[in-house]
Specification:
globular
């Protein structure tokens, strides 16, 4: 459930007095003091919290209905929620990945996301109702993290969902029972909001639950009407709030007042469909979508002043504080804010990396990189360096991540198994960013110099622009405070208003890109109602008789299609595999026959098959002959040769993944794949290129397994049974309760719906074509197997035959012969270069007499065009001339060594350099006239250009400028 972000009340403050709930002292004293007594301390990395004592209110009161000895850890709160709804007929389902299947959503931002196809009617419900604890990421309010009591980037959303089963009455009654009976929250502290026109919900809360009228608030559409976008499913919602200050009474109570209330449970009654014209029509299947923020309810039950001090996050904060050698209990507000940012962001980056999001400069990878850099710069700001164990690289992220991983068992059990890759990625990213910070320091110095020079020229006060401050902040990780402090030391102010404008622009872009779940109801819903799921027969046969159930042209249903048309065909059953799990869809033909006589009257070519609208196979086709209509019987035939290619490459992909894990380590994980008819592509997480030896070892392993002629075993079993057996999930695949497990005994076991060979010997052979990096921390292997392997090897053998013939050597002698030829070529080139240099020097010797003398220092200058002399020759000529002319002398030479090429060189003797005239700066300016640039040392520099036609004018300018510069120094 997506809980809308509330505006912060202007008077928001944290209550002054809070109880101390962790009894035993700890050496570092990291628990912040909230009361008048001694600071309370935690006694372990994962604290146990007792729901007893006073609540965070002015007049403390016990939580009634709760056993005073009961321990409310975050794990227990989560388990109680799931068990409560499981006892009421809900199926407990696992959290989905933070990387959603839905292409319209950037990251998983709500618990309902995995059920979106069911809410839309695109997929049938597998259970009537479900309950989950969903990992979520939101970065639209990242600047509020640590500064308010409740904003986080990573959080867990507890939810219960009904897919046309129960509705408003049961949802409300169970929410009340859970919060007051199971969690023991005092009823008198609970407030309710309902949509202003939702009389039904108001009545249930008032008459059936018994909430007093004054504690039920009717609120407008912005607060209490949930929509997914301009159109689609929507409905009123009802929210539950906890009151930290009941002594303030009910008169003029504002539920948006964060200093008094916190919203912790949101119930969405999905009962309408919003049309294009804005009108609402009742949904035939009414749904329930709820969300309870785990960190929010933990804050209430654990009696702490903010989400960060719950046992879900605080152990990370403790670790950060100990590494910074500070005490959270005595730290000032700035320090505690920084520690909260670190605690929150570390959870986000660990779970994102675990779910396969690698730091990069684009897409989701940029979200991870930005969060990591915020942690690094914040940690360095408060003095964190290394992990306290004298680690050689001075990184601290891996040590913090260890604490996050230790807390992950109940959230995502897979995190611990990916520990090594998570720690390695964080260490590498931190080291990269520290280098970036160094470059940022250099840039800041340059920007401050520019600001000072500009101010001196214009008579203004020096100021660093907001755009530059934001550049340092966003790209180089410089905290604004550090930029302002360094600027102040240099006498430069900072344009904070301009910086705020840049920050607001980024925030708006982030919100627009990442915080919307779009649902829409269109024609496809009408289609799905009349067409059942397609029965797939392709595991057993490449041929089948089927009935045409639907025809689509440009997405619109039609009754018949004639020759020459492109069409999408829906069948009741098919042998064609639809693209999924990385494997492309089958190709082949459909044939239709006359009802009388049985003569063929239609031929339809299938070019691709995709899954859509749940589990309906869409055959993308062209009518080659005749026509076809809905209801027609057809014969379907898959292209067997192409299918065999897909089978070979899919099984080879499984073998490749096992070989990779064996050679470079089990921590590597799949990051994408393509199984085509003629090749495979496999993306995996790894921090460096593979060596030739590793690639050969991987190839050897795969080919060994192929030659073992092992029979594959395929079984259908419960998802949990498959995981318990050690099966690995394929990247991007979505699984139901029953899964297909493909096993190469002793080698690999995968959850996979793709097609495979019966025996590894069918693969025949395997060869890696290439290995390369495609993103930070992501490598890609391309390979061939089966017939494609044979074709590849034969073509390479033909190349070798031609090479042997050309070089007149045997195959085993090709390498040594090529090395000999290359060495001979290098020697010849060096000889040619040496001869050209000598010719250039001889040519230059004839030019020495043309040198002009500039009085009164008797500086000899020579500016000449050397024709087509190359850069090396030009250098030799200049060095010869500057020596021959004797000190003081200045030589500037130019040439056009090839089409569209200009070479320039400037050689100044020590006497000219002492005048303050530098060759590097001088030649760079001249080269610009020729469409190029360059530079070098004060006494010698080279440059190039792309406009030979401008060389004469450039040399004339050089002559005038060198004469002017020397003359001005003389005066």
């Amino acid at each position: 459930m997506l809980i809308p972000a509330r505006r912060l009340a202007s008077s928001a403050t944290i209550p002054a007095v809070y109880p101390h709930i962790f009894p035993a002292p700890r050496s570092l004293g990291l628990r912040r003091q909230h009361g008048r007594g001694a600071p309370a301390r935690r006694t372990s990395a994962t604290p146990v919290v007792r729901c007893s004592g006073s609540l965070p209110v002015a007049n403390p009161a016990t939580v009634s209905g709760t056993d005073s000895s009961h321990e409310w850890s975050g794990d227990m709160i989560r388990r109680r929620f799931l068990d409560f709804y499981a006892a009421r007929g809900h199926k407990i389902l696992p959290s989905s990945s933070l990387v959603p299947d839905d292409p319209t959503v950037f990251l998983t931002i709500a618990g309902m996301l995995q059920f979106k196809p069911i809410f839309l009617g695109k997929e049938p419900r597998r259970v009537p109702c479900a309950t989950t604890s969903q990992k979520c990421i939101r970065t639209n309010d990242i600047e509020n993290v640590g500064r308010t009591s409740r904003h986080q980037t990573f959080f867990e959303m507890l939810g219960n969902f009904s897919f046309g089963d129960y509705f408003k009455k049961d949802a409300i009654k169970w929410a009340w029972e859970l919060t007051t009976k199971e969690y023991g929250l005092p009823p008198e502290r609970l407030w309710i909001s309902v949509f202003e026109d939702d009389d039904e919900a108001f009545s249930i809360w008032l008459t059936e639950v018994g909430v007093p009228k004054e504690r039920i608030k009717r609120m407008g559409e912005d607060d209490n009407f949930w929509t997914s976008g301009a159109t689609g499913p929507c409905g009123p919602c009802s929210e539950m709030y906890y009151d930290f200050h009941p002594e303030r009474g009910s008169l003029n109570a504002d539920l948006n007042d964060d200093s008094r209330f916190i919203e912790f449970y949101n119930l969405v009654f999905m009962q309408y469909n919003k049309n294009d014209d804005g009108s609402l029509e009742p949904l035939k299947q009414k749904n329930i979508d709820t969300g309870m923020g785990l960190e929010r309810i933990a804050r209430i039950l654990q009696n702490v002043p903010n989400n960060y001090e719950t046992d879900l996050i605080f152990p990370i904060i403790e670790k950060a504080a100990s590494m910074a050698l500070v005490s959270y209990s005595t730290a000032d507000d700035a320090m505690t804010t920084n520690l909260k940012i670190i605690g929150d962001h570390m959870r986000a980056v660990v779970y994102l990396i675990s779910d396969g999001v690698i730091p990069s400069n684009i897409g989701r990878g940029y979200v991870v990189r930005r969060l990591i850099r915020r942690v690094v710069r914040t940690g360095r700001l408060i003095g964190m360096r290394g992990d306290g164990h004298e680690n050689s690289d001075d990184t601290f992220l891996p040590s913090l991540a260890e604490t996050v991983i230790s807390l992950s068992s109940e959230i995502d059990p897979d995190v611990k198994s990916r520990r090594k890759s998570i720690l390695g990625e964080l260490q590498r990213e931190e080291l990269r960013f520290v280098q970036t910070l160094g470059r940022g320091e250099k840039l800041l110095d340059e920007l401050l110099d520019e600001a000072l020079v500009s101010a001196a020229d214009n008579g203004d006060n020096p100021c660093l622009s907001g755009k530059n401050v934001f550049l340092l902040y966003d790209t180089y990780g410089f905290p604004v405070e550090i930029t302002a402090e360094i600027a102040n030391e240099r006498g430069v102010t900072v344009d904070m208003k301009g910086f705020d404008v840049e920050m607001e622009n980024q925030r708006k872009q982030s919100q627009a890109a990442h915080n919307v779940i779009k649902l829409s109801v269109g024609n496809e819903n009408e289609i799905v109602k009349s067409i059942p799921d397609t029965e797939f027969l392709g595991y057993e046969s490449l041929f089948a008789t089927a009935v045409v159930k639907g025809l689509l042209i440009n997405g619109n249903p039609v009754e018949n299609v004639s020759e020459g048309s492109d069409v999408e065909i829906l069948l009741d059953r098919t042998p064609f595999y639809a693209e999924s799990g990385g494997q492309i869809g089958d190709n082949g033909f459909l044939y239709a026959y006359e009802e009388e006589g049985g003569e063929q009257n239609a031929v339809i070519e299938i070019k691709d098959v995709q899954k859509s609208l749940g589990n309906i196979f869409v055959h993308k086709a062209t009518i080659k002959q005749g026509s076809v209509e809905v209801g027609k019987k057809i014969d379907a035939a898959v292209d067997g040769k192409l299918r065999q290619g897909a089978k070979v490459h899919h099984t080879a992909t499984h073998l490749l993944q096992s070989a990779l894990k064996s050679v470079i380590g089990s921590e590597t994980s799949q990051a994408g794949s393509l199984v085509a008819f003629d090749r495979l592509r496999f993306d995996f997480s790894f921090h460096r290129p593979l060596s030739e030896e590793e690639l050969l070892e991987i190839e050897s392993l795969v080919n060994q397994w192929i030659s073992n002629a092992t029979h594959l075993e395929t079984n259908v079993m419960a998802l949990q049974d498959a995981k318990n057996a050690g099966a690995t999930a394929m990247f991007g695949e979505k699984y139901g309760e029953q899964v297909r497990v493909v096993e190469v005994p002793g080698v690999s076991m995968e959850l996979c719906g793709g097609t495979h060979v019966n025996n590894t010997a069918e693969i025949r052979g395997f060869r890696i074509i290439s290995e390369q990096g495609i993103a930070s921390g992501i490598r890609r292997i391309e390979a061939v197997a089966g017939d494609a392997f044979v074709e590849y090897v034969c073509s390479r053998d033909n190349y070798m035959r031609h090479l042997c013939s050309s070089l007149k050597v045997k195959a085993e002698d090709v390498n040594s012969r090529v090395e000999t030829v290359l060495e001979e070529l290098r020697t010849t080139r060096n000889e040619v270069s040496s001869l050209r240099s000598k010719i250039a020097v001889l040519k230059a010797a004839t030019l020495a007499s043309k040198a002009a003398i500039i009085e009164p220092q008797n500086v000899r200058i020579l500016v000449e065009n050397m024709g087509d002399v190359d850069a090396d020759g030009l250098k030799s000529a200049a060095e010869h001339l500057v020596g021959a002319l004797q000190d003081p002398a200045a030589v500037i030479l130019g040439s056009c060594p090839g089409e569209g090429k200009v070479s320039l060189v400037a050689a100044f003797s020590p006497g000219v350099v002492k005048m303050g005239i530098q060759a590097g700066k001088f030649v760079g300016g001249i080269a610009k006239l020729c469409g190029g640039g360059g530079g070098g040392k004060p006494n010698f520099a080279q440059a190039g250009g792309r406009k030979p036609e401008n060389l004469p004018d450039a040399l004339e300018k050089a002559r005038a400028e060198i004469v002017s510069s020397i003359s001005s120094k003389s005066s």
